[in-house]
Each structure stands twice: as C-alpha cells, then as structure tokens.
Amino acid sequence: MIHRIALAALPLLLPMAAIAQEAPEPATPGSVIAAAAPEEWTAIPAEDLLVMELAPDTAGNARRVVIQLIPAPFSQPWVENIRTLAAAHWWDGTSVNRVQDNYVTQWGDLTEDKPLPHGVVAPEAAYEASDLLAKTTSLSWLISIGGNSGNAGPPAPPLDGRDDLHAALAGFGGGWPMAWYGYQASLQAWPIHCYGYVGVGRGYAPDTGTGAELYTIIGQPQRHMDRNLAVVGRIIDGMEHLSSLPRGSGDLGFYTDEEDHLRTAILSVRLASETADPPSYEYLDTASETFARYVNVRANRDDAFYTVPAGGVDVCSVQVPVRQTGS
Amino acid sequence: MIHRIALAALPLLLPMAAIAQEAPEPATPGSVIAAAAPEEWTAIPAEDLLVMELAPDTAGNARRVVIQLIPAPFSQPWVENIRTLAAAHWWDGTSVNRVQDNYVTQWGDLTEDKPLPHGVVAPEAAYEASDLLAKTTSLSWLISIGGNSGNAGPPAPPLDGRDDLHAALAGFGGGWPMAWYGYQASLQAWPIHCYGYVGVGRGYAPDTGTGAELYTIIGQPQRHMDRNLAVVGRIIDGMEHLSSLPRGSGDLGFYTDEEDHLRTAILSVRLASETADPPSYEYLDTASETFARYVNVRANRDDAFYTVPAGGVDVCSVQVPVRQTGS
C-alpha cells in the first residue's frame, strides 16, 4: 500500500517536441514546481492556519509569521489546545524567550504562571499514529523517498520492526515529512522535526507539554526529537522573523535578564478564520506526479551549476512547496 | 582499515563504584565531552585559524567570527588562496552580501571586480581526495557512524562503488565530517557541508571559485552541494553573527540596492598567526574513545528528557566539539 518513488528511473516527462528539436533546459526544483498542474495543489483549511504578529522590527516593519497546523491523525490533542489558546488570545503579550543557534527559537509566557484556558492540559504522550489504516482512507499517501532516514536510493531492506532510525522509513504523507515502520495494520508513523517545523515545549518526560510553549527548528534538524516532542505544525510564511533573531546568551539560548530588550513581543496569535482578511495558502500534494519529479530533481541536480548528482536526498532537504493564494 | 564504532554495544565505561552504589546519572553529550581526557583534545594550528572582524552591531558590540581551515588532503588549493587573500588583507572593506534563509550567508567583494592578489586563481576541481592512503599515514582516522549518509545503525552493506549518497559512507576523519566510498587504495573521500561549514562561492560549473567569495550553511545542510562546491573550513566561534543577520529580499537572498544598509561590513580578516593576541582552540579527536561515546550518546539519548532513543544520528547532527584555550 505504501507507494514508493523509483527515484533513479523516474522520467522527466518532457514534451516530445522539445526532445526532438533541441536539448531541453535541465529541470530544477523551481522549474518542476512551476509546471505543476493546478489540481496538484491542495488548499490549506483556514482552521489549520495560525497568524502570529510579532512587534515591528527596529525599522518599523511588520513581522507576520504564519503557521500551518498538522492535520489528523497526528498530534491532535496539542493542536486542539493551540486552537483554544489562540481563540482565547492567550499568546497576546507573551514573547520570544529563547533563541539557541543551530537549534530552536521558542516562544510563550516568560513568567510561566499565566493561567491557561479551561481544558488546556498536557495530554498523554501520543507522538505516533498507530492505527493509520483505521484513520485514513488509504495509506497510499505515505510516500517513501528511500530507506534509512530519508536518504533516497534503492528500495529499503524488508522492515523488521526495529525501533530505530535505521529500520524506519522516511518520506511524506499527506503533505508532511514522516517516518514510519511496520506494515499495514501494524504501521506506526510520526512527523519529523525539519527546519521551520513547530513543536511543543515541555519539561522532563513523561510531561508532554500543553502547546502553550512552542518552538521552531532554526538549524540542523535533530531527529532525536522525533517521538519525544510533539510536532504540531510548520512555519509557511515569515520564518526569517524567527530564525534571524539575536541569539540568547543564557543556558540553552534563553535570554538573560540583562537581555530583556532582545525579547521579541508577540502582539497577537489568531486562527486565520478569526482574522478580518484571512490569508490563504496551498501546498503541493505529496502524492502527486509533480512532487515525485521534484524529489527526483532534488536528489539528482544536473543543471548548469552542478557536476556530480548526489543520487539521494535527506527528507528534510525536500521542503514541501507551499504558496500563498490570497490576502 | 576503516574503524567502525559499534554504536549499540559501546559500554559507557562508568566507574565501578558508581555502578555498585547507585544508578548513575544518564550520560548526556555534555557530560561525555566534559569527561574527555586532556590528550583526547587536539590543538588547531594557528595557520589554520582565520579571524574575521565584522563591524560592531547596533549596540556597539564587537562581532568576531573564527574560522578553522580544513587540513590536507582536502581543498588545499582554495585554502592556500584563502591564506594569500588574508595575508593581503584583501577582505578588509568587503561585506556580507547575501543571507538566504535556511541556506547560506555569503561574503566577499560586492563589486566583483576587486583585483585578486598575484597567484590567486580558481584551481581545477578536486573536491575529493582520491589517494588518501598515500596522503595519510593511516586510514584508521576515517570513522563511520553507520552507512547511508551518516545514519548510525548496523554495519552498512558491502560497498559497491556506486557514485551516490546511498552507497557512500559518512562519518568523521581527522576531526571533520566526511563521506566516502571505495576501499583502501581506491578510497575516495570528501568533506561534508554541515551547519556552520564554510565553502567557496563560484559561477556555473566547471568554474570552481577562488576562495575570495565564501559562504556558510545557516540551515538544513544540502548534501547535494558536496563534491560540487569546495568545503574549506568551519565556523568555530561567532557563528551567531552570520546566522542571525537579516535575510536579503533579492534573488537567492542577496541584498537589493535598497537594502544596502543591511550589508554587514567586514573590517578585517587575518590569519590568527598574524594577529597581536592570537586566539587558540582545540577539537576533540574524532578517533578518540570519548568521541565514540559522544556519538553513541547523541544517537541514543536516554537522559531524563527523552523517552524514545532514536537509535541513529545524522552525521551533521554530531558537531565536532571545539573549545577555546587561549586569548
């Protein structure tokens, strides 16, 4: 049921006329995405979009960050908490309190004692979706880009259910980078912490956090966070407003008391459906032919700039294309 | 000859007394590094250290970036150019001209017509070292952390020399993240573009660049750059001064003419050996027992914060420990 992209063999499907007449321009990730059919793009529901307005920068420019929340069946208890927190305007007046280079930017309530809205509690840990077959109509949306943690290549060896990265497959499901192991009814899948992905801050295990404290990855993804922290979304616009902030000099990149002026104030966080002029976005269907070509080109760059194709690509080096369609 | 770390089996070598009396604190990457023996640290030669002074930030704070140049047998024609450029004070008065989110920060001569010192020319491409056995006394310094692009796990399948990521092993050699394939005399190895690693900007292939235009990785490493661009060093201090700069809004993250005020001026770039009070650093020997333990702990976090050990780790998630020892 799990669809596999045959990376090396995938033809680029160039029009015959172009092949007959002249050598075509080599495909680039950009040219492949530009050629996607309209029906290969999927609209993101307004209830999955969160709009965070940071205080303007020193030059007075607005700083808007847009987060796409992860859809079912992943991380939904936290996602529901986040919708409740946004509806309660809970983040208004909070701040970005931690920026650790090559790791995370983290935001929330500096005092750590701001009361939470009714019903917002840390759920039981459920970092994996363990009965995907029951929760989705088809598993064909899980697309492997190669075994062994997302590096493309020949078909992976038979899965043996070992609970480690090596045994896990990585790829994409429903528009999101995923890792999984098992097969059919025993399939276990979980979302991956890539650059710009948003997770739930927490204390020591088994605490899972509520979703009030959030972070995003601003460097090399640390895959050991997967299944230990909840991935609840990804930044689809304005990532630079979080990644380019001054780093904190305290432990773990927290700003010290002397660096209070470096903390960026959060003016508001709203569900897009609650805003006056909601922005809209769509992402490239990860089960589409164009996405398969895009992965292939990412893994085998052979345009004028490159000489040696890598022949493989890390799952986090394949960013799911997202584009704004309104407002 | 290539040494392999048996990740899962590696004992943590705890003192017997601790085992007998109480459950020891679980090891963390930090605790493992702190316990390294003095002789496991290797001094970085002053001629391999480059000190770049950026213009002070808006609060008047100095911004010093220290780069470690990669040692032989890798990328030496460019490294020699870089030493010549630094000795000629060529970068003084140049600037940071490009900051592309989740990709690179790049610096050099904005006009692109500043004359280069005598002898600084783009070398023939030699991104790989192809006769390592002749160039080093032993290959035992190439340490694999698992097959398939640096993900730890069981021994990799036999190498078949295929020219792709899947067939390549990844790990560490001489203190640097490396990928390689082949065996013994046929071994080909090359350095990896990880976060904070420095490479040589260039035009279209087969141009290889001179080393006058440099970049560093500020996001997800893009391994397709390996063997297509020359890795010449890594930032070992002050990375945050390059990663937290405002992103450029022009194509590829270049600053536009309207964003001239965002370009960060480079006051000077000097070889440490040329400075009045040279800083000194050392790195943890990647062939040491402590480094092996460090990789193991990175791949299998089981301290109080983590519940599910990953069982593997990407080569770029294992930063080689570097510490300052003087000035």
Automatic annotation (TrEMBL), chains A, B:
This is Peptidylprolyl isomerase. GO terms for molecular function: peptidyl-prolyl cis-trans isomerase activity. SUPFAM superfamilies: Cyclophilin-like (SSF50891). Keywords: Isomerase, Signal. It holds the Pfam family Pro_isomerase. Residues 79-250 form the PPIase cyclophilin-type domain. Residues 1-20 form the signal peptide. It comes from Aurantiacibacter marinus. InterPro entries: Cyclophilin-like_dom_sf, Cyclophilin-type_PPIase_dom.
